[in-house]
Amino acid sequence: MPKSTSWRHVLPIHPAANLFPLMGSGEMSELTRDIKQKGGILSPVTLWLESGKAPQLLDGRNRLDAMEAAGLTVVDKSGELVLGTDCEVLNPSDGVEPFAFVLSANLHRRHLTPEQKRGVVAGVLKARPGQSNRRIARAAKVDHKTVGAVRTKLEATGEIPQLKETVGADGKKRAVMAAADRAEERAVKQQAKAERRASREADLARKITALPSKRYGLLFADPPWRFEPWSRETGMDRAADNHYPTMTADEIRALDVASIAAPDSVLWLWATAPMLPDALATMAHWGFAYRSHAVWDKLAAGTGYWFRNVHEILLVGVKGNVPAPAPGTQSSSLISVAATTHSAKPEAAFALIESYFPTLPKIELFRRGPPRPGWDAWGNEAEALPASADPDPLAIPSFLLRDRQPATAGEQPSDRGRLQ
Q1: Coil, strand or helix: which one is 259?
Q2: Statement to judge: residues 171 and 219 lie in one domain
Q3: CA angle in degrees (0–180, nearest 5) for 157-126-44
Q4: Is residue 185 part of a domain?
Q5: What is the pLDDT of residue 233?
Q6: Do 48 and 166 lie in a common domain?
Q7: For residue 387, how many C-alpha atoms fall within 13 Å in the half-sphere facing its CB?
Q8: Mean pLDDT, residues 65-69
Q9: SS3 at position 314
Q10: What's the total number of domains in the chain?
Q11: What CATH number corresponds to the domain at position 308?
Q12: Torsion angle of alpha carbons 174, 180, 183, 186, nearest 10°?
């Protein structure tokens, strides 16, 4: 037999050994160099031997491949394995279950992506569909819901049977709900969660509305951030200052937004990439804790020093106890809408916010034009409500009733519209 015979030609591979993906080229090159430097492997490969059957490789595909790549002899000229102390042999009498052994041996030393973990789970389910979701989850170190989702997919494609019962780690059999019944139960639970969340949001709105002075449960702010370019002589040609009066981060933080925020409220705050640290600091100064964010893809490249920015960031911060969306009702974090006029924000963002919080009292800070239906608005370019629609002046913060006449001579634009 030629000297170049590979171990793969003479050693069968146990199905459990294929649960994990092979190493990528980079990892394999690193392993090969390590084996070449050390003259061998530190952890022996494992063979599985059942009575009356040929040995099978249970664990060690990457190590054997790397040994051959390093020039070490794995199979001699006669076609025999020459592993010696580089090999250990297990059999059923050792009380070892092959798939459980492979999972235990590899999970701690392999860095798997979520998709690769689902692939491992799928491999176990195909080989051992009778094992319960929790049993497989415990061995694979994943959530039992992940196993359930993979099982449902494999059942739907006919890759594994739909069983009426499975066996847990304790050896006891338990009834399994049919896939259609599981889907129906999940839908009922999600609907119940959505209804509970809607009830909480409505209760919070009533609580805020009952406060002695007007407070808002939802605040939306698109501050006129003043961004300082590297050079004001050459970098101001496309600056926001050319379109509207801007404010420094310190001036924006100094606005008394906390005085109009209800004890339980949510803040939606726009920021550009270079102003992100200032936006987060402003959110904290106003009394809100950062929770998450969405990204507006404007579908056209703008300006920037490191990148030509195509996006803006919509930060979400919470004060007190505000209900997050019910599971299954969350919107995508990506809003892909073409930009229109300078600084105008997409209608899709407002629609998302209103779907999350339909009943909370809302205000838009730095609004341009008339308020949105059902919202209050504030800003030096915000238009006043019609007289017939003006809210009770005793219940609305005083800054909302400030005169909105054009700035007088000598008045600084950044002084306009400041919350006092």
Answers
A1: helix
A2: no
A3: 145
A4: no
A5: 47
A6: yes
A7: 0
A8: 93
A9: strand
A10: 2
A11: 3.40.50
A12: -50
Asked whether residue 159 falls in the same domain as residue 229, the answer is: no
For 286, the token pair is 């106003």
**Residues forming beta bridges with residue 59, ordered by sequence position:** 46
Q: What angle do CA 313, 314, 315 make, to 5 degrees?
A: 110
Q: Where are the beta strands (DSSP E) in 152-274?
A: 165-167, 173-175, 216-221, 261-271
Tens digit of pLDDT for each residue in 213-245?
Answer: 688 999 999 998 987 654 444 444 444 444 457
Torsion of CA 129, 135, 136, 138, to 10 degrees: 180
Residues 6+ apart with CB under 8 A from 35: 41, 63, 66, 67, 70, 72
Q: What is the pLDDT of residues 364-397, one digit of tens each?
A: 998 888 899 999 988 877 776 544 444 433 233 4
Looking at the structure, tell me whether residues 74 and 127 fall in a common domain: yes
Structure tokens at 234: 């050459």
- Token pair in block for residue 6: 């590979």
359, 305: one domain: yes
Beta bridge partners of 271: 313
Positive or negative, the CA dihedral 219, 293, 309, 334 is negative
| Residue 335 three-state SS | strand
Host domain of residue 47? 7-175
- pLDDT tens readout for residues 191-221: 888 888 888 888 777 766 665 468 899 999 9
Q: Is residue 290 one of the residues assigned to a domain?
A: yes
User: Are residues 270 and 158 located together in one domain of the fold?
Assistant: no
Q: Is residue 186, in this structure, part of any structural domain at all? A: no
Select from 152, 175, 198 the last residue of a domain.
175
Domain assignment of residue 260, yes or no? yes
